[in-house]
Design a protein that fits this description.
The complex is a heterodimer of chains A (about 280) and B (about 260). Chain A contains eleven helices and no strands. With about 280 residues, chain A is mostly helical. The longest helix of chain A is centred in the last third of the chain and has 38 residues. Chain A is globular. Chain A starts with 13 loop residues before the first helix and ends in a 5-residue tail after the last helix. The N terminus and C terminus of chain A are likely disordered. In chain B, the strands form two sheets. In chain B, strands 5-6-7-3-8-9 form a six-stranded mixed sheet, sandwiched between helices. Chain B starts with a strand and ends with a helix. The mean pLDDT of chain B is about 85. Classes of the chains: A mainly alpha (about 280), B alpha/beta (about 260). The interface between A and B is medium-sized, with 32 and 38 residues. The complex binds adenosine-5'-diphosphate and magnesium ion. Adenosine-5'-diphosphate (ADP) binds next to strand 1, strand 2 and helix 1 of chain B. The site of magnesium ion has 3 residues of chain B, from helix 1.
């Protein structure tokens, strides 16, 4: 099996990979600056980049950006952890037991077919406008991709390897840790990657409904005051949070799935001594 | 380990009510410490028999007994056509799997692996991923795994079937060399007559599906086995007998089928 690797002559240069997005950002900033300078739209619709930067500095210095970011981050992490653990655990159980599959599947499908956003007001009524309701909204969105990917991942466990462990009389726990979790891990991490960004959406939706802190709350507040630069600062902060979470899961993926990204056989033969 | 197969029959359910007679009825006994080859056309139920002996499949009728007990995987090692390595484990952790499952400490496991690597021709590949190995090397890792397990019964289901002829002969002879203890009983499924004669003390021949015993042949070639043995007159005679048995099996099967139709 050959995979493209870093020595691939056709691989794009890492320099262009880094520079291209930066060039695009610069171009967008320039266009933005020109549009606001020409006053194509009123300032409260398209504020100049400098105003946004100024706002960013201001809310950074008075600590409010960090405060609201941390509130949202807490809800995101709680939702991500809760939703992912529940999704993986329930996915595993459904795959192990036909009875549970029959019992749970209709509800999971029903839950998924309802827009989670519609649940948010109800969750606020039940759990108040604090952290809990946001974390649960977030967990509900996170649950489904983790659940589905766990079920699919478990179905990917090769029957021949199951036989192997049976012949070795492996215990149920050994089968889980030696075979099932590693075999399902690529799908599981794939699900977690999607979930990481969805978790942010869930928390913000919760904050839109009712909150007294958080980036979603900040956006609602700023919008009501026509403070468009602050809206933009909060939106960018959310994007950064989502991107960092995605990056962390990607890093986890690279480390845990190193066996999938190993070099080609030929590259190893040069290091080894085996002759055939 | 002594293997007794009595009136053994396996039928697979097919469709809503149908049944597929895959194997038997079959009767034979393997003496402890013997190396027996099982020969038969493809689809005659050889793998089915292996699965029964490994405790992976319950027979429809009759019994298989290992030292008098029902098979449950205990004391049984199995080598398939595919090396069946866990792709997310390095070579050393794949080889050490039986020891790990038995709860043996990490350092002891790795020492055992290290002692085997050079014998298996896998020096320097301790830390390689399975994806980095050739088919022959992967199968050597699987052999190492089964050697570390030290089973009393070793089941080989066409273990070299996917390899080229030369690698295959070499691995077969190596396997004989590595065979840990004399008391180990080996049942090797193959559809290669030469492989059967080269390695085994005894060859059982099955008919077409459902596999029944059509020949039971002792192989009195001297040990240790060498490739030169395959050029002797004695070997050629054995080869002729086996071919005839395989032909008889096929012919008998055809007669039965014709009678069933009538
Ligand atoms: N799980 C199964 N369900 C139904 N039929 C099967 C199953 N496994 C094997 N068979 C059938 O049983 C027969 C014997 O199979 P197998 O033991 O694999 O033969 P061999 O290993 O000798 O080639 C074949 O006709 C095969 O199609
Ligand atoms: Mg087979």
């Amino acid at each position: 099996m050959t995979r493209p690797n870093s020595t691939d002559v056709y691989a794009r240069s890492p320099v262009s990979k880094r520079l291209a997005p930066l060039a695009l950002i610069a171009a967008v900033l320039l266009l933005w600056q020109i549009m606001s300078a020409l006053q194509v739209y009123p300032v409260f619709i398209i504020p100049p980049p400098a105003a946004v930067l100024q706002k960013f500095v201001a809310v950074s210095l008075d600590g409010s950006l960090l405060h609201h970011s941390l509130v949202t981050l807490k809800a995101v992490l709680a939702g991500l952890a809760g939703g992912a653990v529940a999704g993986a655990a329930l996915g595993y159980l459904v795959e192990r037991s036909a009875l549970l599959e029959d019992a749970l599947t209709p509800f999971v499908v029903a839950l998924q077919s309802t827009p989670i956003v519609a649940w948010a007001p109800l969750l606020v009524i039940w759990f108040g406008s604090g952290l809990t309701s946001k974390a649960i909204t977030s967990a509900l969105i996170v649950f489904f991709p983790t659940f589905v990917n766990t079920v699919v991942g478990m179905r990917n466990v090769p029957a021949s390897l199951q036989d192997l462990l049976r012949v070795h009389r492996a215990t149920r726990w050994q089968v889980l840790t030696v075979l099932e979790i590693p075999a399902a891990l690529p799908m599981l991490l794939g699900g977690l990657k999607i979930s990481a960004t969805l978790a942010v959406i869930g928390a913000v939706v919760g904050e839109f409904v009712s909150a007294d802190a958080g980036l979603g709350f900040l956006i609602t507040l700023a919008r009501s005051r026509y403070d468009t630069p602050l809206v933009l600062v909060a939106v960018i902060a959310l994007a950064v949070i989502a991107r960092i979470l995605y990056g962390i899961v990607s890093m986890l993926e690279r480390r845990l799935l190193a066996w999938q990204h190993s070099g080609t056989r030929a590259s190893y033969l040069q290091k080894g001594t085996f002759q055939e | 380990m002594k293997v007794q197969v009595k009136d053994l029959q396996v039928k697979y359910p097919v469709g809503s009510a149908g049944q597929l007679e895959a194997l038997g009825p079959l009767d034979f006994t393997l003496a402890a410490g013997s190396f027996v080859a099982l020969l038969g056309p493809s689809g005659c139920g050889k793998s089915t028999l292996v699965r029964v002996l490994a405790g992976l499949l319950k027979p429809t009728q009759g019994v298989a007994l290992l030292d008098g007990n029902q098979p449950d995987g205990g004391g049984t090692g199995i080598l398939f056509q595919d090396a069946n390595l866990l792709p997310w484990r390095r070579v050393r952790d794949n080889m050490a799997l039986p020891l790990e499952l038995a709860g043996i400490a990490r350092e002891t496991r790795y020492d055992a692996v290290r002692r085997l690597l050079s014998v298996l021709g896998l020096e320097g590949f301790e830390m390689a991923w399975p994806a980095e190995l050739s088919g022959g090397m992967a199968q050597r890792v699987a052999i190492g795994r089964v050697l570390l397990q030290e089973p009393d019964l070793l089941l080989l289901d066409e273990p070299f079937g996917a390899l080229d002829a030369i690698t295959r002969e070499q691995l077969g002879l190596d396997l004989l060399r590595f065979r840990a203890r004399a008391a180990q009983t080996v049942l090797m499924v193959t559809h290669d007559i030469n492989e059967a004669l080269l390695l085994a003390d005894r060859v059982l021949v099955l008919s077409l599906r459902p596999g029944r015993l059509v020949a039971d042949l002792a192989v009195p070639l001297p040990r240790p086995r060498r490739l030169e043995h395959t050029w002797s007159q004695q070997y050629v005679n054995l080869l002729r007998q086996l071919r005839a048995a395989l032909g008889r099996g096929a012919a008998e099967q055809m007669r039965n089928a014709v009678q069933e139709v009538r």
